[in-house]
Structure formats: structure tokens, C-alpha cells
């Protein structure tokens, strides 16, 4: 009886909590770009979470069923005592001036390459490190990414970032929560990372909005980011694992249309199709090109080459949603519901610049966007801060790093600047220079504390940990701040160079976390990564060195050996000795014979 | 070791060393002659090498460039509009280009409110590497660079359509390819806010007003201070143009006719050009990128019939596609080479002996000056005297080297320098001082050549050649031909030679540019001349003046 009640309760809870939820958000941007974000939320059944201890084998597998939560991921999380995990796969450069703020206020967008952040429960830091190492190595195979290269020399323990990262999970008595972070900026993100991503979904990319996700299309964007977040949420005794997955991308609509019409090869436009400015000279031979057309029409199929294959589950209606933000005065959006036999289209009406459509039926869904003026889009949200980071200098033994922050708003902005650079960049903090620029001109700042309110710095240790810097910076309205400092480049050991040593070494992007007036995070973004050139030897050189060294050694040995073994004589003694050698005697004999022959003649 | 002993004994027995010491002046001359002969020998078949692509990733001319057909209409369209801008001010021209670039969805930045540049960020790119396409408004002939400007706009429009880029493309419009471009490059690596990562390669386009067709292109690649772009980059562009059937010229010699003479001329013109880069008014823009590990070259369209303008664009397109393929920096091929033709080159190992021979020649002459005329102990006895005089001359030169470029009357100043040093009249107490001082100076030049020969072979070779008459002076003094020695000393005054040379080469500006090139372009030739060549000349001149002609003769009688 109790069991039945328990089961009913569980079912009710399941229905209320909606263990799976997915959403596709589309937003046309200026200049014929499109921001599309896929969001998936999956929750596990509540269970009794315990600290996993390898030595006690009895509590190994507590549960073996997570409902929609992927069964493959659960044990990894539990066995490493990971309470929170964030994975970021990002490629490209976010053009904040044209595209505005990052989706989800940057919460799910990483920097170039991949990033891992985990909160691990452990009694001490060594065990946390062990679990971290175990976790990254398992994830490496799981996500086809080089997480296995995550080592102590790139792992950091962020400080300021921790403040809001905590889940409501309370560690067991005697344990602590450790936040570890590592980034691999040179990791290319590609289809092999998308496949495991899709496998985590209960729909496996076969139905619902995830059916749009085709590697060829997702990765042919201007910028794309994938994120996987696992959090532990606890309520009294039971805990739940929550999986939050997103894919965000900026699509160049014109390129998608062109690819659909003309194929992937950028062949020259046919003469009659050229869009020319007729106010200027225009004839068969000459054409002053106009910009992109503004009267365009496209659908999800143009961009993804597919349609949405119905709702994810037949029995569950309101879990899949497409929401669109657009300017209704010049855009018209139609929803198509297609089956093998019929196509039903209806125009979506929009009064609030935002519509939500639920995918409820087992039909193919397609959304068609048409506009008479694609330049008229919803205004982009200006991000609270712009940042650009670059390397300065040219020499192979030292260099500099320069970051410029620009506050475009009328209010001061406060943020945390997190930067971790590899140990082979030896930073000189005393060379830190600040320069500010506003309408009145440029000024060098002597008193750094006017801008840098607080700082945390943990210097690097060669080959075992990176340098780690967190600065709390405040920038006054409408001004920019340039921060620069210098560093020395180290010479690596022969075996420490990667196979493509002449490519240079990637330095991970810096994280900028903007704080609002309550000191809580309101926006987050990354600078670009950097490519650092280190002094790289010619790798055939060691052989030259070996050959030269051997020659010199053998010469030295020969001389020494001669000195030790031979008798020292004067020149005169030598002359006499020389006449008595066998060779000299032979020479004399021949001479004698020759003389005899001559004299006979 | 036994062999070395035998040889040593034989040398001792036959008394070769004293004979050799006696012959040193002649040996020195022979070495110098051999040095020149070595270079002349290089263009002979079998001594040079054919160019080849060393970096496999480049894969030049492997892609079909679609910059053709209707793209030509676009080039024509832009050209007419650019034609209208010629007589406007820089700001008006820039704002027009800015509006056109914004139509292409590109953002525009300025350096010093004058140099416009625009970054095309690679889709999904890491934003860490870039390629630069430079189009000066006025090319090296001071001609309005109409063709190149319209090509650049059409090209960037075409590049923007493709999603294959892994490196950003920077488009730069400096007023000319001289100081303005150099200052942009410097600012890019120090103060600019809008950057696109490290620049791997740069192409400077020059295409004047010849319209739709051109005959062939000239390639310029010499950088400042003896720096050259990686040979792979030049080869890539040249191979691509060969596939297009376009001929090219290096140092004024086209690739369709090649023989010993053209190769020899290309070689020597190349040496001269490399040592004079930055000192003449001929600035092609590739110099501006020197020193920042950026491989750069300039291509300039010549003639007005033959190939069409889009072919010129295709060279740039296809070269960028090749560079885009690179995973590593340019490092496979040669950084030190001398071109004999667009298809032949000699590498550093082959031409270096020439400069080494020249350095040896000076060293032998220096030895001869000591061994044939004085006792070596004498130098050590008067060491303070020598050190004082050398330090005095060097410090004097150092002060002049740093102050003169910042004064306004440097041309007069330089002319006076030569004269003043001949004025003083004094005598050393002993003629041995003269020989010792000459020996030290000649040895100094020898060291200078040795130090320079790898980094800047051309300059080392030319200084060695022009300073060579100085090696005759000890012999002339010994033979009491002091007047001829004085004459040689006047003739081989660095500034006299530079003055005559600049007139002869029809580049009279060399004289003044020598001083300003450090401040404008960071070309250090002035310091080499002022701290290496000139002080040695002064020391030798002092020795000639201090030489007691009459006394010695009397003593001998």
C-alpha cells in the first residue's frame, strides 16, 4: 500500500517538475544575421545523495535509473563527487558591436576552445584534485575533447567567481566544496563534440527541436557555443541532478540562402543577378555593388536543411517551445505544419515583439520568415562593457599584454576580471600600467586603486600551476581603461614543445563578470584568446649538436690519448729515429735500386 | 694528430711562415678578389637552386579562384567611383570608403585619424591570427593607386562571401607606403584597440591607372635591416601567377628571359637594394612590416595590355587561401637568401663564404700591418694610449650619431665631418703608432663584417667592398707613398663614398635619409656607418696624418 502511494506521489512530482523541457529561441539581428539558441533542461529523479568513497564498496551505485537524465553521465558525476559541472565549447569571435549582448547574458557562453568548471566535494584539496583529474579524464572520452590534457599546470581555483556558483547542496560533515576550473583555448570544436551532446538528450536528436541540429549547419555559423551544465539541487533529504544544455549560434542568413541556391562553392554571381546601384554607371560591363538585399525570405529549412520533426514525446504536449523575437512592423512569420499529405500554414500574430509556439503534434514544423526590410529588427541590447585584449611587442624573450575596457553606458560599471596565463609567461606585476581615455583626452593613472578596487593574485609555479589573477575593477561612465603589463617568455624543455610548436601557444581567454548594484552577477563574457610565440628551436638542431660535440670530444680524447701513450722526443732524436723505421729503410732501398738502374744506363 | 705534426714540422723547416707574412698584403688582395669572384660564380649553372615550396600546408594554386567573371564588373564599378575621389582630401576619401565598407557589413577603425583600416573577422575564427592587405592611396610612383583600391574593395566583398577563413583579414588604406604605414604597423603592436591577432603575412598591392589590363607584375620584398620575407611566401605568389600565365620581374628582370647576365645583375642589384632599403625614396610598403615577424611583399602591376585586372586579384586571393591553410607560422623555408630570378635563388650557406673571405681579407691586412712593420710588444706597452684614442673617437662618433639626426642642419654637419677630420696637423712620436692604429682599425672593420654577415649580408659586403682601399694604406706608408695614402683615405671616406654613390645611383636623398631613417623607419644603417665604418676611417686618417715622412727617411739614410 505504502509503495503504491509512494509511486503515485512520485508520478505527481514528475508531472509537476516536468523532467524534460526544450526551447528554441530565434531572433533576427541587423544585417541579415540570426541568433538561434537551443535550450534543453533535463531533471533526474530525486534520490538520496551520499558522499562516494572508493574504499567503502557498499555504497557504490545508489541508483540505477535517472529517468530522462542520461544514465551514462550519472555515475560519472556521483563517483567523482561532482556537485556542479560546467562544460563550454565555443568557437568564433562574438561581435558585440553588431550582435549586442550574448544569449542568456553570457551565462552559458565560454571563450574560444573548451572550458570545464566543476565543484567537487572532498575532505581536502588533494582528494578534490584526484577527483578532478578522474572527472576530466572520463569526460575526455565522453565528449571527444582533449580534457585529458587538463593538468595541475592549467587548473585554477577561482575565488570571486565562487560566490554565486554554490548550489544549495550542503556537503557532508568534514567535507568542503572545491571549485576547479581549466580551459583549453586551442581545442577546435566540431561535430565529434556535437554527437555526444545530442546523445545526452532523451530525444537523441530524432524529434523535437534537436532534430534541427545537423553538424554541417551548426558549425557553419559565424559564432557558435555549446554548453552543458549539471547542478545538484537538494530539498531536505533528497537531491536531484539537473542537466541544462544549450547551443547558441549566429547564422549568416545571406550565406545560408546562397548555399541553398548556388551550393557551397562561392562561384561568381551571374551577371543578371548582380545587385547594382543604378544611380551610378551601370551597364553590362560595370556594376557598383549594393549591399545585401533587405527584402528576403527564409525558413528554418533554409538554415538547417531540415524541418522540426514533431514534438519530442507523443504523450507530453507542452514541453517543446519555439519562441521568436522580431519586429512585427516589417517581419512576417508563418508556421507550417506538414504531414505526408497536407501542409497547414498559419501566420503568427505578434503584438509584443515576442511569440511562443508550442510544438504539440507529430507533424513536421517549419517556420518561415519574410520581410520587406531586414534592416528593421529589434534594437540590440548594448552590452555593459566592451573589451579587447592583444599581445604587444615583437621579441622572443619578452612581450606585453594589453587589455582595453570600454564602458559605453552613462553609469559606472563594476566587474571582475579573471585572467589565468600559463606558467611560461612570467608576469611582472610591477609593470602594470593603467591609462584611461574619455572625451577630454588620455591620462596615465598613477593611483591604481582608483580603478582597481580589489585584487587577488597567485603567481605561477614553473610546470605546476598557472598564474591566476582576479581584479575587481570599476570604470566610470563613457570612458575606457587600458591595462597593460609585461612578461618574459620562458624557454621550454625539448619534450615540452607540442608537435606544432611553430603555431605558437594559446593563452586562454580572460573572463569578465559584470556585477550589478547588488554585487551579483548580471552579465559575463570572455575576451579573445591569444597566440603567444615562444622561442622555438629548430628541432633538427640537437642532431647537429650531437655531431659537433662528438667531433670535439674525439679530438680532445685523441690528443690526450697521444700525450699519455707516446714518448716525447726532440726534433733531432726524431730525425734519427725516422731513418730507422721499416718504411724509411724500404724507401732507401727503392732509392738505391733506382740509382742503380739509372747508373746502368 | 700525426698528420698535423708532420705538416707543422714541414712548415717550420721550409720557413713558410716568414714568407707568408711577407706576402700578407698580396694575400689580402687575393682574398678580396676571391670574395667578389665567389658571388660572380654563383649565377653559373649548378651553383644556384630552383625555388620550391618547403611548407606542405601551403598548397599553392590548388584551389580555383572564383574572383572572375562578374567580379570584374564590380571592380570596374568601384574603379569609377574611386576615380572621382582622387582630388579630394584624405578625410573625404576615407569617409567614402568607410561607407562602402559598412555596406559590406565591415567595421572600420582609424589610426591617428588618418589611416583607415577594417578587420574582417574570420567566421568561427579564433581571432588570433590575421593576414593584411595593404592598399596605399598613392603608390611608389606617386601615382593614384586606383586599380588596387578598386580591387581591394571587390576582393574584400568576395572574401566576405566565403566561410573558409581561419585567419582574419585586415584591409589597410594608408596615404602612402612610407612612414604612415610603418607607424600603423607599430601602433598595431603597441597601442591600437581594435586588433585581430598576430599578422602572419601582408601583401601590398600597387595597380595604378592603367585600367583593365596589365602586362606583368614587379615583386618587391626587401625589408629593413637586411630582413627578408620567408621564401615560401614569395614562391607561393610566384607559383600562383605562373599558373595564371602571368610573368613577373624581380629587380627589373623578367622571368621569360633568363641567362647568366640577368642572374648576375639580379644578384648584385638585389644586394644593393637590400642594403639601401629605407634609405631611398623608393618605399614599397613591404619594409613597413619588418621587425615584427610579418612576412610581406609588394606586387606592382606594370604595362597596360595582356592580363586582366581580376587575374591580379586572383594572385592575392589564391595567396591568401594558401596562407590561410597554414597551421604554423612561416618557418620551413629560408629567411636569408639572394634571388637570382623569380625561379632561382641561392641560400645563406652558399653566399656567406663571400663575406667571410672579405672579412678574412681585412684581418690579413691588419696582421700584415703589425707583423711587417712593428714589434707586437709595442702595442701592449702603449695600450693605454691606444685605448684612449679609440675610446675618444668612438665616443665622439656615438655622440654625433645620436645628436645629428635631431638637428636641422644635418646635411652640412655630415659634409663638415669629413673635412674636419682631415684638418689637424700633428705627428706621432714613432711611426710604429701609425701602423698599430691602422692594424686595429682594419681588424675592427673585419670584426664589423663578421658580426653583420649573417643578419645583413648585403650591408656587410658593401661596406667591406667600399672600405677595401683602406687595406692598401699600410703598404703605401711603408713604401713612403704618403700622398697616395692620403688620396685613398679621402676617397674612401664613408660620407664621400655615400655622397658620390647617391649621385651615381640617382638617389641623392640617401644622404639625408641615412640620418632620418632610424627615427622614421627604425633602419639602423646610420649607426653601423657611424659607429663601425666611420670611426675606423678616422683612426686610419689620424695615423696617416701622424706619420712622420721626413724623419724616417733621414733615419734610413
Give an overview of the whole structure:
The complex is a heterodimer of chains A (601) and B (557). Chain A is α+β, with helices and mostly antiparallel strands and 601 residues long. Chain A folds into four domains: 237 residues, no CATH class; 100 residues, no CATH class; 147 residues, Sandwich (Immunoglobulin-like), CATH 2.60.40.740; 59 residues. Chain A is 22% helix and 34% strand. Chain A is built from twelve helices and 26 strands. Chain A has a nine-stranded mixed β-sheet. In chain A, strands 8, 9, 11, 12 and 14 form a five-stranded antiparallel β-sheet that branches. A five-stranded antiparallel β-sheet of chain A has the order 15-16-22-18-19, with no helix packed on it. The longest helix of chain B is centred in the first third of the chain and has 26 residues. Chain B folds into two domains: 233 residues, no CATH class; 229 residues, Zn peptidases (Aminopeptidase, 3-Layer(aba) Sandwich). Chain B is of the alpha/beta class and 557 residues long. Classes of the chains: A alpha+beta (601), B alpha/beta (557). Chains A and B meet through strand 15, strand 16 and helix 10 of A and helix 3 and helix 5 of B. Chain B: This is GPI transamidase component GAA1.
Keywords:
heterodimer, A: 601 residues, alpha+beta, Immunoglobulin-like, 4 domains, five-stranded antiparallel beta sheet, 12 helices, 22% helix, elongated, B: 557 residues, alpha/beta, Aminopeptidase, 2 domains, nine-stranded mixed beta sheet, three-stranded antiparallel beta sheet, 21 helices, 55% helix, 13% strand, disordered C terminus
Q: Estimate the global geometry of chain A from the Cα principal axes.
A: elongated
The main β sheet of chain B shows up as:
9 strands, mixed
The number of domains of chain B is 2
Helix content of chain A: 10-25%
Q: What is the typical, i.e. mean, pLDDT of chain A?
A: 87
Greatest contact pair? A-B, 69 and 50 residues
Distance between the terminal alpha carbons of chain B, to the nearest Å? 50 Å
Instruction: Write down the overall mean pLDDT of chain B.
Output: 89
Tally of separate helices of chain B: 21
Low-confidence sequence ranges of chain A: none
Uncertain stretches of 5 or more adjacent residues of chain B? 552-557
Q: Total number of β-strand segments of chain A?
A: 26
| Strand-residue proportion of chain A | 25-35%
Which descriptor suits the 3D outline of chain B?
A: elongated
C-alpha Rg of chain B (nearest Å): 28 Å
- Structural class from helices and strands of chain A? alpha+beta
Number of strands of chain B: 12
Transmembrane segments (chain A): 541-564
GO biological process, one term (chain A): attachment of GPI anchor to protein
Protein name (chain A): GPI transamidase component GPI16
InterPro entries (chain A): PIG-T (IPR007245)
Amino acid at each position: 500500500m505504502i509503495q503504491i502511494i509512494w509511486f503515485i506521489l512520485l508520478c505527481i512530482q514528475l508531472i509537476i517538475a516536468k523532467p524534460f523541457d526544450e526551447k528554441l529561441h530565434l531572433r533576427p539581428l541587423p544585417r541579415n544575421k540570426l541568433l538561434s539558441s537551443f535550450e534543453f533542461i533535463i531533471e533526474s529523479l530525486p534520490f538520496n545523495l551520499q558522499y562516494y568513497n572508493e574504499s567503502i564498496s557498499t555504497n557504490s551505485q545508489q541508483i540505477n535509473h535517472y529517468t530522462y537524465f542520461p544514465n551514462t553521465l550519472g555515475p560519472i558525476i556521483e563517483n567523482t563527487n561532482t556537485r556542479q559541472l560546467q562544460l563550454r565549447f565555443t568557437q568564433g569571435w562574438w561581435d558585440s558591436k553588431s550582435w549586442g549582448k550574448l544569449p542568456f547574458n553570457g551565462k552559458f557562453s565560454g571563450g574560444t576552445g573548451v572550458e570545464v568548471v566543476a565543484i567537487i566535494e572532498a575532505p581536502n584539496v588533494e582528494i578534490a584534485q584526484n577527483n578532478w583529474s578522474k572527472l576530466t579524464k572520463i569526460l575526455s572520452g565522453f565528449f571527444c575533447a582533449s580534457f585529458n590534457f587538463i593538468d595541475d599546470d592549467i587548473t585554477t581555483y577561482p575565488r570571486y567567481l565562487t560566490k554565486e556558483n554554490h548550489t544549495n547542496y550542503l556537503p557532508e560533515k568534514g567535507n568542503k566544496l572545491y571549485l576547479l576550473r581549466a580551459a583549453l583555448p586551442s581545442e577546435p570544436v566540431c561535430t565529434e563534440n556535437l554527437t555526444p551532446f545530442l546523445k545526452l538528450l532523451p530525444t537523441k536528436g530524432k524529434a523535437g527541436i534537436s532534430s534541427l541540429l545537423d553538424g554541417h549547419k551548426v558549425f557553419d555559423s559565424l559564432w557558435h557555443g555549446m554548453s552543458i551544465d549539471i547542478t545538484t539541487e537538494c530539498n531536505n533529504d533528497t537531491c536531484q541532478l539537473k542537466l541544462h544544455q544549450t547551443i547558441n549560434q549566429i547564422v549568416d542568413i545571406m550565406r545560408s540562402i546562397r548555399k541553398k541556391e548556388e551550393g557551397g562553392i562561392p562561384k561568381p554571381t551571374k551577371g543578371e543577378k548582380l545587385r547594382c546601384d543604378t544611380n551610378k554607371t551601370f551597364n553590362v560591363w560595370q556594376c557598383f555593388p549594393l549591399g545585401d538585399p533587405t527584402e528576403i525570405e527564409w525558413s528554418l529549412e533554409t538554415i538547417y536543411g531540415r524541418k522540426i520533426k514533431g514534438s519530442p514525446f507523443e504523450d507530453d504536449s507542452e514541453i517543446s517551445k519555439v519562441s521568436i523575437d522580431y519586429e512585427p512592423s516589417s517581419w512576417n512569420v508563418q508556421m507550417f505544419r506538414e504531414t505526408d499529405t497536407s501542409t497547414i500554414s498559419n501566420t503568427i500574430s505578434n503584438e509584443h515583439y515576442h511569440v511562443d509556439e508550442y510544438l504539440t503534434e507529430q507533424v513536421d514544423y517549419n517556420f518561415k520568415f519574410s520581410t520587406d526590410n531586414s534592416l528593421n529588427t529589434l534594437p540590440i541590447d548594448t552590452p555593459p562593457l566592451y573589451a579587447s585584449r592583444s599581445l604587444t611587442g615583437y621579441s622572443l624573450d619578452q612581450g606585453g599584454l594589453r587589455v582595453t575596457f570600454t564602458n559605453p553606458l552613462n553609469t559606472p560599471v563594476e566587474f571582475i576580471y579573471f585572467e589565468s596565463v600559463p606558467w611560461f609567461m612570467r608576469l611582472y606585476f610591477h609593470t602594470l600600467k593603467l591609462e584611461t581615455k574619455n572625451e577630454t583626452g588620455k591620462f596615465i593613472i598613477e593611483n591604481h586603486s582608483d580603478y582597481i578596487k580589489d585584487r587577488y593574485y597567485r603567481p605561477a609555479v614553473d610546470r605546476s600551476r598557472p598564474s591566476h589573477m582576479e581584479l575587481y575593477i570599476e570604470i566610470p561612465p563613457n570612458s575606457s581603461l587600458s591595462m597593460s603589463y609585461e612578461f618574459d617568455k620562458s624557454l621550454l624543455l625539448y619534450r615540452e614543445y607540442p608537435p606544432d610548436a611553430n603555431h605558437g601557444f594559446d593563452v586562454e581567454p580572460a573572463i569578465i563578470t559584470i556585477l550589478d548594484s547588488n554585487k551579483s552577477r548580471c552579465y559575463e563574457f570572455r575576451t579573445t584568446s591569444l597566440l603567444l610565440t615562444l622561442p622555438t628551436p629548430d628541432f633538427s638542431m640537437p642532431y647537429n649538436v650531437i655531431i659537433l660535440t662528438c667531433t670535439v670530444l674525439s679530438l680532445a680524447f685523441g690528443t690526450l690519448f697521444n700525450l699519455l701513450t707516446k714518448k716525447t722526443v726532440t726534433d733531432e732524436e726524431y730525425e734519427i729515429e725516422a731513418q730507422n723505421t721499416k718504411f724509411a729503410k724500404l724507401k732507401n732501398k727503392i732509392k738505391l735500386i733506382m740509382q742503380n738502374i739509372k747508373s746502368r744506363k | 694528430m700525426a698528420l698535423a705534426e708532420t705538416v707543422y714540422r714541414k712548415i717550420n723547416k721550409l720557413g713558410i711562415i716568414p714568407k707568408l707574412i711577407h706576402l700578407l698584403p698580396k694575400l689580402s688582395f687575393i682574398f678580396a678578389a676571391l670574395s667578389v669572384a665567389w658571388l660572380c660564380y654563383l649565377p653559373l649553372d649548378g651553383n644556384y637552386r630552383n625555388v620550391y615550396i618547403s611548407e606542405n600546408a601551403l598548397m599553392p594554386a590548388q584551389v580555383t579562384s572564383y574572383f572572375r567573371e562578374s567580379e570584374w564588373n564590380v571592380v570596374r564599378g568601384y574603379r569609377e567611383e574611386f576615380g572621382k575621389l582622387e582630388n579630394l582630401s584624405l578625410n573625404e576619401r576615407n569617409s567614402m570608403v568607410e561607407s562602402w565598407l559598412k555596406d559590406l557589413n565591415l567595421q572600420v577603425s582609424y589610426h591617428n585619424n588618418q589611416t583607415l583600416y577594417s578587420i574582417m573577422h574570420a567566421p568561427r575564427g579564433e581571432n588570433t591570427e590575421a593576414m593584411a592587405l595593404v592598399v596605399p592611396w598613392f603608390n611608389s610612383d606617386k601615382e593614384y593607386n586606383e586599380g588596387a583600391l578598386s580591387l581591394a574593395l571587390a576582393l574584400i566583398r568576395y572574401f566576405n562571401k566565403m566561410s573558409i577563413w581561419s585567419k582574419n583579414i585586415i584591409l589597410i588604406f594608408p596615404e602612402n607606403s612610407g612612414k604612415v604605414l610603418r607607424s600603423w604597423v607599430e601602433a598595431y603592436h603597441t597601442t591600437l584597440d581594435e586588433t585581430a591577432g598576430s599578422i602572419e603575412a601582408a601583401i601590398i598591392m600597387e595597380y595604378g591607372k592603367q585600367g583593365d589590363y596589365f602586362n606583368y607584375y614587379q615583386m618587391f620584398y626587401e625589408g629593413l635591416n637586411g630582413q627578408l620575407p620567408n621564401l615560401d611566401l614569395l614562391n607561393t605568389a610566384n607559383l600562383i601567377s605562373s599558373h595564371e600565365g602571368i610573368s613577373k620581374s624581380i629587380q627589373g628582370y623578367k622571368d621569360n628571359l633568363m641567362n647568366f647576365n640577368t642572374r648576375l645583375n639580379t644578384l648584385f642589384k638585389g644586394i644593393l637594394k637590400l642594403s639601401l632599403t629605407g634609405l631611398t625614396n623608393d618605399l614599397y610598403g613591404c619594409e613597413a612590416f619588418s621587425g615584427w615577424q610579418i612576412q610581406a611583399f609588394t606586387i606592382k602591376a606594370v604595362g597596360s595590355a595582356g592580363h586582366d585586372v581580376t587575374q591580379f586579384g586572383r594572385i592575392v586571393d589564391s595567396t591568401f587561401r594558401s596562407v590561410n591553410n597554414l597551421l604554423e607560422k612561416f618557418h620551413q623555408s629560408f629567411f636569408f637568401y639572394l634571388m637570382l630570378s623569380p625561379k632561382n635563388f641561392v641560400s645563406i650557406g652558399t653566399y656567406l663564404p663571400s663575406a667571410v673571405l672579405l672579412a678574412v681579407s681585412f684581418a690579413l691586412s691588419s696582421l700584415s700591418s703589425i707583423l711587417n712593420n712593428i714589434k707586437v710588444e709595442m702595442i701592449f706597452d702603449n695600450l693605454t694610449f691606444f685605448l684612449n684614442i679609440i675610446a675618444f673617437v668612438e665616443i665622439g662618433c656615438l655622440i654625433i650619431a645620436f645628436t645629428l639626426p635631431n638637428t636641422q642642419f644635418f646635411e652640412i654637419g655630415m659634409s663638415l665631418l669629413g673635412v674636419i677630420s682631415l684638418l689637424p696637423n700633428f705627428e706621432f712620436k714613432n711611426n710604429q703608432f701609425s701602423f698599430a692604429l691602422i692594424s686595429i682599425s682594419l681588424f675592427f672593420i673585419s670584426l664589423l663584417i663578421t658580426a653583420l654577415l649573417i643578419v645583413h649580408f648585403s650591408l656587410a659586403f658593401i661596406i667591406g667592398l667600399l672600405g677595401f682601399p683602406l687595406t692598401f694604406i699600410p703598404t703605401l706608408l711603408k713604401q713612403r707613398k704618403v700622398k697616395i695614402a692620403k688620396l685613398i683615405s679621402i676617397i674612401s671616406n664613408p660620407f664621400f663614398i655615400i655622397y658620390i654613390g647617391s649621385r651615381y645611383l640617382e638617389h641623392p636623398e640617401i644622404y639625408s635619409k641615412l640620418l632620418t631613417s632610424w627615427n622614421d623607419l627604425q633602419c639602423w644603417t646610420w649607426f653601423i656607418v657611424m659607429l663601425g665604418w666611420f670611426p675606423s676611417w678616422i683612426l686610419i686618417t689620424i695615423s696617416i696624418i701622424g706619420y712622420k715622412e721626413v724623419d724616417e727617411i733621414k733615419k734610413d739614410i
